[in-house]
Write a structure and sequence with these properties.
The complex is a heterotrimer. Chain A is mainly α. Chain A contains 13 helices and no strands. Chain A is flat and about 70 Å long. Chain B has 2 domains: 44 residues, no CATH class; 233 residues, MetI-like (MetI-like fold). Helices cover 75% and strands 0% of the residues of chain B. Chain B contains 14 helices and no strands. In chain B, helix 5 runs antiparallel to helix 6, helix 9 crosses helix 11 and helix 9 runs antiparallel to helix 12. The mean pLDDT of chain B is 86. Chain C is of the alpha/beta class. Chain C has a 5-stranded mixed beta sheet with strand order 2-1-3-11-6. In chain C, strands 8-9-7-10 form a 4-stranded mixed beta sheet. The N terminus of chain C is likely disordered. Classes of the chains: A mainly alpha, B mainly alpha, C alpha/beta.
């Protein structure tokens, strides 16, 4: 029995390590490039360890544009965006799965269908709508679209569908209104999925480039991703600065990821029998 | 009478929950989409100031649709896109399922691995494409060097008409498997432990448990991943733009790449809009089929 | 415990949203940025000072560009400060945006009616924007001092729609050491492609890993090489395509033959994912036909001696003309001020001096004394070749469907370069495709 277990363990770790390496090799190249001085950025064969590692790229990131201001903007926008998404999508998903109303199916299908249109063609019409609403160059212009997140609704619907209706019945018998059921029964059960949605939404909003580019025209409202992309010129891009900036901007998302993961773990441990 | 009142009240209770989302949908989704339908019926160039007047002037009915369907380009890029999808979907689902299962064992180091596997998802396609261009380099890239170690002469990936698309598939799977793995992981985490306990009591082995209990209970998450992967795969874009620019010789030209070029470089936005709507119809049909079929294999608990 | 957490999260979230909405709504709702919002150091309120030719009232214009991104924003700021000395009552709100998404963004703004008063365009987009009537004719300013050819590139049907902000061209850069090793003379300004071929073969012979020359086989190169053999892509009045003329075919065959027949130029698999500059920097390439914007990078990267000469010709010489244009939004009501600003950027001595000093790029002016500062920076020694090249400038054929045409031709040339089809077939097919898909006025 013990031998079988050790074999299993070895096998497990072997695969895990292998996959980790595969996943991380490109990432190492990013780090390596960010430590290079201007020279030899794109030389082949790949120089894994830079000859003269330097933090000059990182210096440039902080001095080339108002890094802290941009980071602050990114935080402001992304956190709001994520919160609104979580609230709005979970409420809508609740309605779709736990409340009977006419045209529910049709409306849900419209939600899914909305994800099938490439954004390139709705870009200009959406821009004009924003303009007419006088929202250009305001934070709401990048935050408000989070009200409608078909992806989030779909994800939560799939999750809420697995919650047996008995839980709702039990709560109703206790005299709970719809909102209370939503808050006390359903939300806690969806915690792992909510955590997941939180991560993906955070990441999507943090890395979003084209829409903030169009909407936030003032330098002081610029997000981090916008600032990083201003580094590419017509003829050359400073790859080392780009990589340094990308790595730095990944840190907040990783932090959020870790936090959300611990939350989700707590939620799953408590199981679903409660209620 | 009573029943009608009750069902009316029931329906009305849905309104506050739906309101934020639906309001958002109307302004930020429905309206632009409706406008884009009108655009597709014109030969608007995407540059002249957009207004009802502009559109009315340039109305051409279904001309764009006829041109697209009658030409060879649409079908060619559709074929390329399908080539991508047929390779990408199975690979990414299997990879992410593998990761999710691996991470669910709860062994030491899982937390660290969770972060590691997700890092590709966090990188932007700009950075990731640059990285993969190097990995895939036929002479100096890691991939071919590794293959050489086991005696295979790797193809010329990004510069070969046959292997360019598989190269893009590889890069995409690398980047997305953490993404779908995350959903599958949370799906796995929501499976009630009591099922597993029951299985152990019954004396079921590891593999049997996986196929008889884990997999079926995971089907809602798998279904979600399948639908999203398909919708996203049809809209393949940034990787192609950065890694191959549609080359070599048009081998990696896909639908959205064409839409972008027509809309934003050739100044034929009407044409691009019509193209998008044809793409939409294709995705819609396939997703509807998936939805219908879900009754056959997806298990919801209620 | 969890319930409370969720509650506090929700409450905090709602509070945050409220704060943001208030802040956002107050921060300015329209696309027209206010003066006070800027961190501009020169917020001179006393703008009554009348200067030489400017208006009495204070005017603020918006200006967007991409050329300054990637390291030159400071230089642009300095230019603005200098401009303010001359025209204190014209305030310019400068936006510098990365190149990659600049045009998607600009197109959206034009279509959405929120484009800046003046902005920058590359040639590709200039052709379309001008043809579609979204640019204003530039009047009321003196173009004296701007290079004639450069100016003519942005003149459509007799009207001036853009001023050349800067310009660059393409020269032949060569690796002196490889030439020494092969025992051949360095290229001179009167070389032809035949001379290049001989040299390239000798250099290629040095080793398997070394190549003689690299010149991209793309539309941008092609229209110029075609001119070197006396051909052109369109007829004189731009009413017909002449892509597969005999001269053009000769040019294409020369370009493609270097890769496919004599292989003095590496094909894509031999490049192995490396780009042409890196190949040259690694010392494995004898000659490269590339833009003068490479000088800075080559100075830093190459550990061998290199120099330049005017690009070789075929039956005649023709050199490339790359320029970005500053244009004025047709819907702008501040076109006078905008015209003053962009003309100053393009032609004034101060702007030109700053451009050269900071190693940004070349101003498109004729003032030799200002340009002479450029000559003094070495390497390369033979910087004079850059100015000599100006004598043979050809401008690209500007038509409305410029991007589509260039994509079709580049696509076909690529197929020929990969050996799939012959050069002749490529041009025949390009001719057919352009004829069927593009209507010329």
């Amino acid at each position: 029995m013990n031998r079988k277990k050790t074999l299993h363990n070895i096998g497990f770790y072997a695969i895990a390590v292998l996959v980790s390496i595969v996943v991380l090799i490109p990432f190492f190249w990013m780090i390596s490039t960010s430590l290079k001085s201007k020279g030899a950025l794109m030389a082949l064969p790949i120089q894994w360890i830079p000859e003269n590692p330097t933090f000059s790229a990182y210096e440039k990131v902080f001095t080339r544009f108002p890094f802290m201001r941009a980071a602050f903007n990114s935080f402001l926008i992304t956190v709001s965006y994520t919160l609104i998404t979580l609230i709005s999508a979970s409420m809508a998903a609740f309605a779709f799965t736990k409340i009977k109303f006419p045209f529910s199916n049709g409306l849900f299908k419209m939600y899914i269908a909305s994800m099938m249109i490439p954004t390139q063609v709705t870009l200009i019409p959406l821009f004009i709508i924003m303009n007419k609403m006088e929202l250009i160059n305001t934070y709401p212009s990048v935050i408000l679209p989070s009200l409608f997140k078909a992806f989030g609704v779909f994800l939560l619907v799939q999750n809420m569908r697995t919650i047996p209706d008995d839980f709702m019945e039990a709560a109703k018998i206790d005299g709970a209104g719809k909102f209370k059921i939503y808050r006390i029964v359903i939300l806690p059960l969806c915690l792992p999925t909510l955590a997941t949605l939180c991560i993906t939404t955070f990441m999507e909003s943090w890395n979003d480039y084209l829409w903030p580019l169009l909407m936030l025209t003032e330098k002081k409202k610029m997000t981090l991703t916008l600032a990083l992309n201003s580094l590419n010129g017509q003829y050359a891009t400073e790859y080392n600065v780009l990589m340094a900036g990308s790595l730095l901007s990944m840190i907040p998302i990783i932090l959020v990821y870790i936090i959300a993961q611990t939350q989700s773990k707590k939620g799953s441990l408590e199981g679903g029998v409660k209620g | 009478m009573m029943k009608k009142n009750r069902s009316l009240r029931e329906a009305a209770s849905a309104i506050p929950f739906l309101l934020p989302s639906v309001v958002g949908m109307i302004f930020f989704s429905l309206l632009p989409i409706v406008i884009s339908v009108f655009i597709s019926l014109t030969d608007w160039d995407g540059l002249a100031a957009l207004s009802l007047g502009t559109l009315a002037e340039r109305f051409i009915g279904f001309g764009n649709y006829q041109n697209i369907l009658g030409g060879e380009e649409f079908w060619r890029v559709l074929k390329n896109t399908c080539y991508y999808i047929v390779l990408y979907i199975p690979l990414v689902l299997i990879a992410s399922l593998g990761i999710a299962t691996l991470l669910n064992k709860g062994k030491k180091g899982t937390a660290v691995m969770r972060i590691l596997y997700y890092i590709p998802v966090l990188t932007s396609w700009v950075a990731a494409s640059l990285i993969w261009k190097w990995v895939l380099s036929s002479q100096y890239g890691i991939l071919n060097q590794l293959l050489a170690l086991i005696g295979i002469k790797g193809p010329e990936w990004l510069t070969s008409e046959i292997w360019a698309m598989p190269a893009i598939v590889l890069a995409s799977v690398w980047k997305d498997m953490g993404f779908f793995g995350l959903f599958l992981t949370s799906g796995l985490a929501s499976i009630d432990k009591t099922y597993y306990e029951a299985a152990t009591v019954d004396g079921a082995g590891r593999i049997k448990t996986f196929f008889k209990i884990t997999l079926p209970l995971l089907t809602p998450s798998i279904f979600f991943c399948l639908v999203m992967a398909l919708i996203n795969a049809f809209q393949l874009f940034p990787q192609v733009m950065i890694m191959t620019e549609g080359g070599p010789n048009g081998a990696t030209q896909v639908m959205v790449e064409r839409i972008y070029n027509y809309g934003f470089r050739y100044f034929k936005m009407g044409y691009a809009a019509a193209f998008s709507w044809l793409l939409f119809i294709i995705i819609f049909i396939l997703t509807s089929i998936q939805m219908k079929l879900q009754k056959g294999w997806v298990h919801y608990e209620s | 415990m969890k319930k409370r957490r969720i509650k506090t999260m929700l409450a905090a979230g709602l509070a945050l949203i409220m704060i943001i909405s208030l802040a956002g709504c107050g921060g300015g709702g329209s696309a027209e940025p206010e003066n006070t919002a800027d961190t501009d150091a020169n917020t001179t309120v006393a703008a009554e000072a009348a200067s030489e030719a400017a208006n009495e009232e204070e005017v603020t214009i918006t200006f967007a560009n991409f050329n300054a991104s990637g390291g030159n924003e400071e230089t642009l700021e300095e230019m603005y400060l200098a401009f303010q000395q001359e025209y204190p009552n014209i305030k310019v709100d400068i936006e510098t945006i990365g190149y990659d998404d600049y045009f998607t963004q600009m197109q959206t703004r034009v279509a959405g009616n929120t484009a800046p008063d003046c902005y920058e365009l590359n040639i590709e987009n200039f052709a379309a924007y001008a043809a579609k009537g979204v640019l204003a004719e530039i009047t009321g300013v003196d173009f004296a001092g701007i290079n004639e050819t450069a100016l003519s590139a942005f003149n459509v049907d007799g009207k001036q729609y853009g001023v050349p902000g800067s310009f660059s061209n393409v020269v032949l850069i060569y690796n002196k050491e490889l030439f020494d090793q092969a025992g051949i003379e360095y290229p001179t300004d009167d070389w032809t492609w035949d001379d290049v071929q001989v040299a390239a073969e000798k250099i290629k012979g040095l080793s398997d890993d070394i190549f003689g020359i690299y010149a991209p086989v793309t539309y941008n190169e092609f229209f110029k090489v075609a001119a070197q053999y006396g051909g052109s892509l369109l007829n004189e009045d731009k009413t017909e395509f002449t892509i597969n003329s005999a001269e053009n075919i000769q040019a294409a065959q020369m370009m493609v033959g270097r890769i496919v027949d004599s292989n003095v130029q590496p094909n894509s698999s031999q490049m192995g994912g490396m780009d042409d500059w890196s190949l040259f920097e690694s010392g494995r390439l004898g000659m490269i036909s590339t833009g003068i914007w490479a000088f800075g990078t080559f100075t830093e990267e190459c550990d061998f001696e290199w120099d330049i000469c005017v690009e070789p010709g075929g039956t005649q010489k023709a050199t490339h003309f790359f320029s970005n244009a500053y244009v004025i939004n047709a819907d702008s009501d501040k076109s006078e001020a905008a015209a003053t600003w962009i003309n100053w950027l393009a032609s004034s001595g101060e702007a030109a001096k700053l451009r050269i000093e900071k190693g940004w790029d070349l101003p498109a002016i004729t003032d030799e004394s200002v340009l002479s500062a450029y000559l003094e920076i070495t390497p390369p020694e033979n910087r004079q070749a850059v100015f000599d090249s100006l004598n043979y400038l050809v401008t690209p054929p500007i038509i409305e469907e410029y991007s589509l045409m260039s994509d079709i031709i580049t696509g076909k040339l690529e197929e020929a370069a990969s050996g799939k089809i012959t050069a002749q077939e490529a041009l025949d097919q390009a001719q057919a495709e352009c004829e069927s898909r593009i209507t010329l006025k």
